[in-house]
Amino acid sequence: MKLGLSFLVRACQGLLAASILTIFAVACSSDTPPLADLSQGCLVNSDCNNPLVCAFRRCHNACMSTRDCPVPLRCVASDRPFHVCQLNEERKCTYNSDCPIRQVCAADAQCRDQCQGDADCLAEQTCISGTCAERNELTDAGTLPVVPKDAGPSNGQPCTYNSQCQSPLICRNGLCQVECLTSVDCSDGRQCISGRCQVPVCPEADAGVGVLCAFSSDCPAPLICRSGTCTCECRQAGDCPSGYDCVGNRCAIGSVGPEGGIIVSPDRRLTLSVPSGALAVRVHLTIELAEAWPAGALGPVFEVRPSGTTFVSPVTFVYRYQPADIAPVNATSIRLAVASGSTWTPLSTAIDVGMGTATAQSTHLSTYGLIGPGDGGAADTGAPALEAGSSDGRGGGAGGGGAGGGLPTAEAGTQ
User: Fold this and answer.
1) Across residues 37-41, what is the average pLDDT?
2) Over residues 90-112, mean pLDDT
3) Cα 153–Cα 156–Cα 160 angle in degrees, nearest 5
4) What is the DSSP letter of 295?
5) In 185-227, beta strands by DSSP E
6) How far apart are CA 179 and CA 194, in angstroms?
7) Higher-confidence residue: 156 or 409?
8) pLDDT at residue 185 is higher than 50
9) Which helix (H) or strand (E) segment is 8 a member of?
10) Which of 48, 83, 156, 392 is the 20 to 30 Å CA partner of 122?
């Protein structure tokens, strides 16, 4: 009887041990997640099924050239030290922000590696317009096919110029739509603010007068409207992005070189756009309210320094006027003009009445302001003007037909 009882105890102990081992085995196997398949999420290569690798936090096929990838996928650089075949969902784009890191949205609406020369691309690829492409993807002209990017918020209105679109939309590929989705879509250090690429502002809310506002024009200079309240944009250069100076509590580009750039007056009324290649060396440019100018000006007058600086190609001035600046002159009759001695020399000017802007081009810096009909001498051809001579500060007749960079001349009118 004792032998039978001992055998029964030992049998129960064996069954209990076997059960415990089985439980541990099941528990251990359940802790190991299945490996990820192509395009599924990952953090490291071991998260993916062999031979897949982890790039852009998704499992990809590794490659050495596009021939290693399924058609029509392309072999591209990744965020790891190896190349991968694009995923189908990583090919098409409208904005740079649609593409994986280090890639841009090319002219053919596909995400491509950035490059400055063929050496930046794979051995069988070539650098075209700053992006890497397979040679069999190019047109007979040796370029990528241009694909209209009809995406993003759009009112569907066809257009040719930005002025034909309602703010804040711009004319993009023949349709009125937003300029950007994120700051990645902007260049020259600008930020995407409310769908437009704009000069960046300081991130913190500096103490201001606290006046409620809807637009910066509602605030006394140099304050701007931020989050519905008038506030300072900056107090020192450290408050502004790299390459910008704090000028009169406003962030402005401190200098412009051969790459071009944008200079804005402290009150944002006058903007100077310098195209790439217009300057051979870097120059510190500023826009300030002028201390003296010829008679006949409408609204504020600005001196752009260093005065006398010349450019290889025309630069563009955009003057944002207020109705009170030009009253009672008709907006279509005003012109942007350059001070020449004791008189004004009108520039060929394009007027956008809806936007309240006067746009003109010139090849040198001086003092600029708005004038009405009959308040200028001969039209400026883009070169430094000679002094014209009227002792009362008013020229002989309305400016007409100047070169001025090819902009349409403002229509003549009467006060």
Assistant:
1) 93
2) 86
3) 105
4) T
5) 191-193, 196-198, 224-226
6) 9
7) 156
8) yes
9) helix 2-30
10) 48
| Banded pLDDT at 394 (limits 50, 70, 90) | very low
Cα separation of 376 and 361, whole Å? 16
| Type and span of the H or E element at 14 | helix 2-30
CA distances from residue 388 to 262, 284, 303, 385, 391 in whole angstroms, order as listed: 31, 29, 19, 9, 9
Closest CA to 293 of 284, 282, 285, 302: 302
d(CA 387, CA 148): 49
The answer to whether the CB of 361 falls within 8 A of the CB of 316 is: yes
**pTM metric for this prediction:** 0.37
Do the Cβ atoms of 244 and 250 come closer than 8 Å?
no
- Rounded Cα distance between 216 and 75, Å, is 48
Q: Do residues 286 and 335 lie in contact, with contact meaning Cβ atoms separated by under 8 Å?
A: no
Single-letter amino acid code for the residue at 43: L
Quote the CA–CA distance of 372 and 359 in Å, as a whole number.
15
The amino acid that residue 70 corresponds to is P
Domains recognised in the chain with CATH numbers: 45-137 (no CATH), 148-198 (no CATH), 255-415 (2.60.220.30)
